[in-house]
Design brief:
By secondary structure, this protein is mainly α. Helices cover 74% and strands 0% of the residues. It has one domain. The chain is built from two helices and no strands. The protein is rod-shaped and about 90 Å long.
């Protein structure tokens, strides 16, 4: 079997070009929304992690309150600062 290549310039209808542009813009919007959502999730996870760390530091400060009051105060001051 013999096939012959057809090297004609591609012709695109104006309506198809408009549809392709609209689809491209919609895809770009979807990607932007997904990126913003990812950043919000990352911020939420960071806040949750910081709260847990702060709670652990305050618990350690309560445990050390009697034996080492200066260290306990240092832990309380460190827990009061934000790392975000």
């Amino acid at each position: 079997m013999y096939t012959q290549s057809f090297d004609a310039p591609l012709q695109v209808m104006p309506a198809d070009a408009v549809r392709a542009g609209i689809a491209s813009q919609a895809a770009e919007r979807v990607v932007n929304i997904a990126m913003e959502l990812g950043q919000l999730v990352q911020t939420a996870v960071s806040v949750i992690g910081e709260r847990r760390l702060r709670a652990a530091m305050l618990a350690a400060a309560r445990e050390q309150d009697v034996a080492r009051p200066a260290f306990a105060e240092s832990l309380r001051r460190a827990a009061g600062h934000s790392w975000l």
